[in-house]
Design a protein that fits this description.
This protein is an alpha/beta fold and 309 residues long. It has two domains: 31 residues; 272 residues, Divalent-metal-dependent TIM barrel enzymes (TIM Barrel, Alpha-Beta Barrel), CATH 3.20.20. It has twelve helices and ten strands. The longest helix is centred in the middle third of the chain and has 20 residues.
Length: 309
């Protein structure tokens, strides 16, 4: 007689058998799931307007829903006109977390063909002198430690020649040692030019192989990497656990324009499905030269929420 107990027993056996048959698929699904961090923002996205009202703009960022902040250089100097502790307190009081800070690897210079961002008046921005890791690495490490951030990130460094790449690697290595002593993690942020070979050698490969994977983590700018023809998932699998930070940046199919997340051509869902492979701990939306920054970051936040669901 086919009783309810028999039915449940047979159903359970069938379900167990299905799971066993698909155990590799199940294990893979579990392995690639991580506790997703809150949505972060790289403040460079608001560079044209942010310094006009630092507190007000941070409040607007919080109101949109962002919880993680990555800072960069400021027209006011320092940390948007504040000390590291003052800036940290401002972010904390708004219920957000200051996770990471960008600094230059060497004295600032625009890459070949790049244009200086413009301000709200349409004129090129004037950048005050900035400290850099080559000349001021200990000072920058100490400031980041004072602010209580987790990561100090090299945002940009000279890599036009092999000699420049080698010199930059020396700077990354010495900074990573100082960061470790200060209780910080150190990371390197890419553009697309790191993937362009120089005399048959790819600078990004040199940086990966000639720095300590335990001391120099990577902040993979997804947009710039894909513009260079690189698959982020392949990079994750080749260097598992090294990509603690991401920049989530979207572009059109021709890689000519940086757009709001979800309005471009990139499949972010596929990339986020491999977050555990990468070792990702935080990600930050970034849109260089955003034409209407607050509107743009609102759209990016809302679209990314849909993608992650």
């Amino acid at each position: 007689m086919n009783t309810r107990r028999t039915f449940l027993k047979n159903t359970s056996a069938f379900a167990l058998g299905s799971l066993l048959l698909n155990k590799d698929l199940l294990a893979n699904a579990i392995a690639n799931k991580i506790a997703m961090p809150g949505v972060g923002l790289q403040l460079y996205t608001l560079f044209s307007v942010f310094d006009d009202d630092v507190n007000g703009n941070l409040k607007k960022i919080s109101d949109i829903g962002y919880t993680e902040i990555e800072s960069a250089f400021s027209k006011k100097g320092g940390f948007y006109g504040m000390s590291p502790k003052e800036f940290a307190a401002t972010i904390k009081n708004l219920g957000m977390h200051w996770r990471s800070h960008h600094v230059m690897g060497a004295p600032f210079k625009l890459p070949a063909g790049a244009k200086m961002p413009t301000g709200s008046d349409g004129k090129p921005l004037v950048i005050p002198p900035m400290k850099n890791l080559r000349d001021n690495y200990q000072e920058l490490v100490d400031q980041a430690a004072e602010g209580g951030v987790t990561y100090l990130v090299c945002a940009n460094t000279p890599i036009e020649t092999l000699d420049e790449v080698k010199a930059s690697i020396e700077v990354l290595n010495k900074t990573s040692e100082a960061a470790k002593k200060a209780g910080l993690l150190f990371a390197y942020h890419n553009h697309d030019r790191e993937f362009k070979a120089i005399d048959g050698v790819v600078p990004y490969d040199m940086i990966l192989s000639q720095t300590d994977k335990n001391l120099v983590k990577m902040e993979l700018d997804l947009g710039w990497a894909m513009k260079a023809g690189k698959d982020p998932v392949a990079l994750f699998k080749a260097n598992p656990g090294r990509f603690h930070l991401w920049h989530v940046k979207d572009m059109d199919a021709k890689f000519e324009n940086i757009l709001e997340v979800g309005k471009g051509s990139f499949d972010f869902k596929r990339i986020f499905d491999h977050a555990k492979d990468s070792g990702m701990r935080n990600f930050f939306i970034e849109q260089d030269g955003a034409p209407k920054p607050l509107e743009n970051i609102t759209t990016s936040y809302q679209n990314l929420q849909k993608i992650l669901k």
